[in-house]
Amino acid sequence: MSSTTTPTKRKRKRVTNPNPSPVPLQPEEPDLVSQLPDCILHTILSLLPIKDSGRTSVLSSRWRHLWEDAPLRLQVPIDQYIASSIFDSQSHQGPIEILSLSRSTAPALDRFVQSAVQRGIRELTILYSNQLAFTYELPRFLLSCNSLCQLSLVGCQFPKTVLLPSIFPNLTELNLDTVPVHNDTVQTLLSKCGSLETLRLIASRGSPLISISSPRLRKLVFDWGCTYFNVKLVAELIIKDAPNLESLMLGECETRYCNVKVLDAPKLQLLGFLCVAFKVLQLGGTLLQQQPASVIQVNAMPCRMTMLSSVKTLAIKMEHSYDKTILDLLKCFPCLENLYILKYRVSRYKNYLGKDIWDEHGFLSFLDHVKTVTVKGFYGNRSDVELVRYLVVHGKVLRKTTLLCYKALCEKFVEAKRRQFCIEMRASSDLELVFLRDSKSNVHFSTWNELISSEKAR
């Protein structure tokens, strides 16, 4: 018997190619950003936060030294520690365009400001102190800085004697907050700053008389801080000669405590806030003076009155309900287009301005040009309703009426007020009536930010 054997299966060995052909790789996309010229990359780095801008130096050899020459824009206030790390480390040697300093000693500020001037500073902000007893005196070399265009000072003061024929040669905007300002200081700034167009005097203490004469000034903000410091001294602001002044913003209580006289400003377009409880208010050739019995007295003077017709935007403040004073005041602005009304308190009295009283004061002529009306502090009482109803029924070119309500809004309240406004009898078919919940305090207009920002958006 023969035996048969079954052949065993042999495992096949896989033969690998000792020299495999490489798999083709996908070509990397070119770094187009790194191929940009240095001037463009410097601009990009200047727009980044300083920490992110500095970290780009580790990306590659191309970026290693770009940050050292990129311009810095430090808009957020930095303290002495951060400023020392920038100025004293010598790691950055590029220009400094925007710098805001705070919480630094006077010697450190001198060193930082000097370095910023040497590097071509354009916008400088110094926040030193909120107390006038602790002020920082500006170094004299800053007064002759040619690159400076905008300067904001808080708790600082100017040198006592300035013998230079001109100071801040290219400065266009100057903001002074809690800075001791006297009339001779203002006169020196206006006469020696040949390019100054915007001046803000906020919460300052100085002489009770401020006189403005400038051929180039376009914007003036004046808030002497009477409500902040409870000052009863009557100050006086006189605009003597301002041929290019377009905007005059006053503190919400300035005309109550200060005598404001605008003698010559033929291009004035924005004016506010005018407190209805004013003392002496002179606008061009019209002198308005409040009598003890709260009766307005209007005296026409032999002066130019072209300024009154140039005003397009007016903001007024009322501490109680509407009265005849507001009607006499509005008659001084025949070409008004935008009206802002700030109501401070709700009147407990039942008197209100009716249609007959408005017709007697010729209020219809005032509505020939008004396009927008904003009422802050709308409570929906009888005076509020009568005002809006009159605007709706007679405003032929009225486009928008905004009511900022300092109370919870509901559909029932809105519908009830719309019926009282006689919205179906509106004179303008393009009229838009807007109710808004005012989440902010009913005391301030946020230091005019809402008013100014809305005017820029028009």
From TrEMBL:
Entry coiled-coil feature ranges: none
One Pfam family of this chain: F-box
Chain segments carrying region Disordered: 1-30
Domain of life of the organism encoding this protein: Eukaryota
Domain F-box residue range list: 30-76
SUPFAM superfamilies in the cross-refs: F-box domain, RNI-like
InterPro entries in UniProt: F-box-like_dom_sf, F-box_AtFBL13-like, F-box_dom, F-box_dom-containing, FBD, LRR_dom_sf, LRR_FXL15/At3g58940/PEG3-like
Secretion signal, residue range per the UniProt entry: none
Protein name as annotated: F-box/RNI-like/FBD-like domains-containing protein
Organism, scientific name: Rhynchospora pubera
